[in-house]
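Two proteins follow. First one:
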Amino acid sequence: MPTHLTAAHPRTVLEEEEAAIDHVLSYTPAVVEGGPSGNEVALTFDDGPGPYTLELVEELNRLHVKATFFSIGEMERYFSAGTAAEVRAGDAIGDHTETHPPLATLSEAGQYQQLSEAAARLEVVGAPRVRLFRPPYGSFSQTTFKVARRLHMLMVLWSTDTADYTLPGVAAIVQRALAGAHPGAIILMHDGGGNRSETIAALPAIVAGLRRKGLVPVTVPELLLHDPPPPGRPIPSSLAGD
């Protein structure tokens, strides 16, 4: 097999998405949303895999939607079937640390351990090379960016928080997701960390509402490939939530 790409061997979609991540990393260590020029939004889910992950993936499949899951490494011990389902569905999988600590409270070595161990565990269960991560609680520091550079990872935050983890009811989750939906939006929800039946029940109305707005749900790598954030946006200092 050739070890390099030629005209006869064009880049795969995964390689194109990795190149898009590298391009964004060339000018910023973190993103809150994509660019404003397209019609895509990214649905993202944190804190899994968990007991609701398989059902949530099945619902996304039924709706013909791909999403991005930021997974906790230690949860793979118990719920790796959920991550395997994400891989089969073509969803994107990112790093949400090994044990979900606030990264800003950890040393450089501690942050490196949290991200690298989770990435290794995700890849063992079948995820592609992990290039994206999301800091628990939106907690990070300048040290986090230093660690991320070592791991060639891009930090992905969010522009819209549904606060579904507070169990506000299906209607509230739908309303919050759609109120914050705009071209380039990255919408935060959860597949783990508690009872996620409300989130699953909200998905059909969220997807239908996005489509009525002319918006297309995609993965974060797809969003970065098709309409990345423009250079020059300020680097975020922190976000609350999760």
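Second one, unrelated to the first:
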Amino acid sequence: MMRLPRFEYRAPGDVAEVVRILAGEGPAAMLLAGGTDVLPNMKRRQQVPRTLVGLRAVEELRSRGNGSGLRLGATLTLTDLVRDVRVREEYPGLWQAAAQVATTHLRNMGTLGGNLCLDTRCTYYDQNHEWRRAIDYCMKKDGETCWVAPSSSRCLAVSSTDTAPALIALGARVRLVSSGGRRDVPVAELYRNDGIAYTVRRPDELLTRIELGPADGWRSTYWKLRRRGAFDFPVLSVAAAARFAVDGTVEQARVVLGAVASEPRISEPAAELLQGARLTDATIAEAGAAAARLAKPMDNTDFTLQWRKRVAAELVGYALRELRGDDMSEQRRRVARHALDRADA
């Protein structure tokens, strides 16, 4: 049985108290919201914080704000998002991403902010302490070598967050708060392509909320590839969003790939191909090929890396056809093993 290491638990009542603790404890403290990622990592000794800062009593982190856009508190659970009618109707890409995270039980605990800050994953890193010690650890924790690519100068653990690609495609922003003030950061700029330092959030900062602009005619979608239709992290994901003119041409578009690097990857070439064009089969195929060139998966997760790269263009094509209005329910059941046809997912 894997047990948690010893730690001190703090339960602040508001954001100001949280950031005071973070400022005082520094990197020795970690935040605990749903705990679905942090606690298993602690049991495997991947993360061994001296202090856990529980966020359950911080009411303002669970708030929602309506207006021209939508403001979502960081500790809203993924189930809260799935049950939110406005999220489902106006931001379907985010709804689909939240609905495909893990299982119902884990969505009941896991939070939106936690999923955005999800630790990067790797076949060599996501093992118990004894297994990792047997191979002399890895660069991400206690070692010096990235076992995915031993000559690499950086960790190649992969980004496995579902909600980040969807929020990037939707042009969302996050608010980071510290004792020194606050800053608003586009989700597209929250991540680094580094398996260890994978976000720009500092140890003394708390992610408090996510802000989405008005839907304004944007359509969005999220596709996820995994071995099983529940529980598994993505081995490839695609988030796409587009705003259409009256005549059906694309005015703006964003295409984002997940689980192909240590950060979600934005395909500017695919977006440029789509802008001003109609979503014909030829345009979709061309955009899919352009986006797939970003996919350079490594041998750090499930399935073979060659196959994961080969299917990237196809998954982008599914997303764009769904934006076009095609009925993709059969393909979604076949590829994602998830119908996404119930309000409670």
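SUMMARY FIELD: The chain has a mean pLDDT of 95. Residues 312-324 form the longest helix (13 residues).
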